[in-house]
Amino acid sequence: MNLRNMIGGTCITMMLAAGTTHALAIDLMLSGPAPDVGDEFTVDVVASGVFDGLDAADELLGFGFDVVVDDPSVATFVGADVLMPFVDLSELFPDVDVAGGAFPGVPNQQGNDVFTIAALTFSAVGAGTTSLGIVSDTGSLNEGLIYLFNDPQDITSSFTIDVVEVHEPGALGLIAGGSLMLVLLRAQRRRR
User: Fold this and answer.
1) Strand partners of residue 99
2) Is 182 in a helix, a strand, or coil?
3) 29 phi/psi in degrees, rounded to 5
4) pLDDT digits over 106-165, tens only?
5) How far apart, in whole angstroms, are the C-alpha atoms of residue 135 and residue 22?
6) What pTM, to 2 d.p., does this model score?
7) Which of 128, 125, 105 is nearest to 115 (CA)?
C-alpha cells in the first residue's frame, strides 16, 4: 500500500469518527416529594447514553460541573454526594462545585450506560419558583464527562422547581381549637 492510499484511508476514518453521534442525555430528577419552605431536598444527576456512539475500548474517567440556582431566595445549594463507581474529587478542583473520578476508568458496558453520578442537596429557603441546574465548561480539563479517548462531553442541564410555604396554624388558632375542645368536653360531662 502506498503512502497516498494510507493518508486517504486515514482521512476517511477520521471523518467517520467525527460523524459519529453521541446520544448523551443528562437528566436532573427530584428524588422525593416537592419541597416545602424549610425542607432539604435531593436532586439526582442521571447520565444516560454515556457510551452511545463511542468506541468499545473507551472508558469513562470522571466528571465535573458547577451547580446553578437562578433564585437563591427560593433554594440554595448545600452539597453533593458523588455516587459509585466514582469517588469524590471535588476538593482537588476548587474551581468546580462537584467532581468525581473512577480509577481505573469505567469500561464501555455496551447497553448498560446509565449512571446516577451525583445526588445534589438543596435547601428550600423561601416560597417561589426557581431553576436549578448544572453547567460544564468542556474547554476546561476537569468539567463535563471525561473519557479516555474522546473529548469531554457537555453535561449542562436544568429544571424548574416550585417551593411552597406551608401555613401552620397560628397560636390564636391553637388556643381557639383548644378552648373549643374544653367547651365540648364540659358539655359532654353535663349530659351524663
Assistant:
1) 64
2) helix
3) -130, 125
4) 998 766 788 899 999 999 999 999 999 999 987 887 899 999 998 899 999 999 999 988
5) 18
6) 0.75
7) 105
